[in-house]
Amino acid sequence: MVRELEKLHSAGLVTASRQGNQIHYQANPDNPVFLELVAIVRKTFGIADHLRAALMPFSDRLQQAFIYGSIAKGTANTSSDIDLMLIGEGVSYSEVMERMIPLEELLGRTINPTLYSPADWVAKLKAGNSFVLRVNEQDKIKII
């Protein structure tokens, strides 16, 4: 780890400061690629936190909200979309998209919400719906 940090420091991507016998590293805001690195981090990390905040107005109407697909599996690339499952009552697609569009711009990713009522979700599970079964068995990142 230290060698990698030293390489990043030598390349000017991070700055280093000493405090006693410790060296603290941080991203170098003066580096020409700093803003691009920030954009990559925004697109890759913290997605769940952004979604949680955006869905907060619906939290009393949602029983479950989770990310599934390549993001949850850890196989996403920079162009992967965000597959979002919402299970609840009284939440419309248009309400959700009003909250998702600004996030799509911030994260640089398309967000694909799928909405089910709790009764529909259970019925599809019991009926053996292949999509619902596959989503139910996949890795998930819990939002609500």
Question: Can you characterise this structure?
Answer:
- The protein has helices at 2-10, 34-44, 47-55, 70-73, 93-107, 118-127, 130-137, and strands at 14-19, 22-27, 62-68, 82-88, 111-116, 141-142.
- By secondary structure, the chain is an alpha+beta fold.
- It has a 4-stranded mixed β-sheet with strand order 5-4-3-6. The chain has a two-stranded antiparallel sheet with strand order 1-2.
- The model has no long low-confidence stretch (mean pLDDT 93).
Which structural traits does this protein have?
144 residues; alpha+beta; Beta Polymerase, domain 2; four-stranded mixed β-sheet; two-stranded antiparallel sheet; 7 helices; 6 strands
